[in-house]
Write a structure and sequence with these properties.
339 residues, Protein Transport Mog1p, Chain A, 18% strand, 7 strands
């Protein structure tokens, strides 16, 4: 019988079954071993073997089977790699955490470094006794007047080394935390107040020579520190640098000792601990200390020669050595103002 145009029948007399439809590539194969793509399946064998039933999806399965960014689809060319969505989210979380820690670290570092060193526990520098002076500045000069040392552009020289600025503004201000002497507040004082710093038997002679050597005026300031240390600064201004030197050498006579020492001070000697490498143009400083035995009060003193001005700095302390560090500090700063 001719077979042309006739569909073959199954051997058992059942209706013929079409060849099995290849599985959806998105659905994993039931067998662990994929079929050989080069060998087509036998339509009779495939029809004879019924396909396994697929269980019905439970309610909500559609939502659970929706693509999730946490699981990559399986299959050739779609294998999850090290930077799959799950790894990307983990990297983001670690990046945010690192940024937070870096921000906290930077904030902590800034907080520590922005605090003054003396307020950070363990980093504070132990005080060496220096006084806390305010910021210093030189007063303005009168129009057209030069400074005491050297030439000033556009003006004549100053051969007398005269301080044309207000001398009261050239006296060192009191530091913080001390008690100021109301009678020595940085203003003018009479000549006898300056002479009173020396022994009583010498005062009248000193006053005569101050007048003869051309004293113009005296500015002074004094204070007492909490530990009982007192300090006075007297700045005596003469007609010229020559007049000042004449009075200093002829009447006070400092050298290896202070010469005419302040009242109550017996034996004096040059202060060997004075930093002799400090030089300020136009000035000279001689620093002395009282030698033992003391008579209840220890003293330090210094003469600052600065052109037409002679500054006397005296520090005293009762019952103990007058502190060295704040005294040296005061002398240096006063020398800078007059230089």
């Amino acid at each position: 019988m001719s077979t042309e145009g006739t569909t073959p029948s199954a051997p058992d007399g059942r209706e013929p079954v079409a060849a099995a439809t290849p599985p959806d590539p998105a659905t994993p194969a039931a067998s662990a071993t994929p079929a050989d793509p080069a060998t087509p399946p036998d339509p009779v064998t495939s029809a004879a073997t019924p396909a396994p039933a697929v269980p019905a999806a439970p309610p909500g399965a559609a939502a659970s089977m929706a693509p999730d960014d946490s699981v990559a689809a399986a299959g050739p060319g779609n294998t999850p790699g090290p930077w799959a969505p799950r790894g990307w989210r983990r990297a983001v979380r670690w990046g945010v955490a690192a940024a937070v820690f870096l921000g906290l670290g930077a904030g902590t570092a800034y907080g520590v470094t922005s605090v003054p060193r003396d307020r950070v526990p363990g980093l504070a520098t132990r005080s060496d006794g220096r006084w806390d002076f305010p910021a210093l500045s030189l007063p303005a000069l009168p129009a057209g007047k030069p400074r005491p040392f050297g030439s000033w552009t556009g003006t004549a020289d100053n051969p007398g080394e005269i301080h044309f600025a207000d001398l009261r503004r050239l006296v060192l201000p009191a530091p913080a935390g001390v008690t100021g002497d109301r009678s020595l507040d940085g203003g003018w004082v009479p000549a006898d107040r300056f002479a009173a710093q020396y022994p009583s038997e010498e005062r009248s002679t000193l006053l005569e020579h101050l007048a003869d050597d051309g004293l113009r005026h005296v500015a002074a300031r004094g204070w007492t520190a909490p530990d009982g240390t007192s300090l006075q600064i007297y700045a005596a201004q003469f007609q010229s640098a020559g007049n000042m030197l004449a009075f200093l050498q002829d009447e006070l006579g400092p050298g290896l000792d202070a010469g005419l020492a302040p009242d109550g001070v017996t034996t004096t000697a040059l202060d060997e601990r004075w930093p002799g490498n400090i030089t300020i143009s136009g000035t000279r400083t001689d620093v002395y200390r009282q030698e033992p035995p003391y008579t209840g009060t220890h003293a330090r003193m210094a003469y600052i020669e600065a052109g037409d001005t002679l500054a006397l700095v005296v520090e005293r302390r009762k019952g103990a050595d007058a502190p060295e560090v704040p005294f040296h500090q005061t002398v240096i700063l006063q020398q800078q103002l007059l230089g």
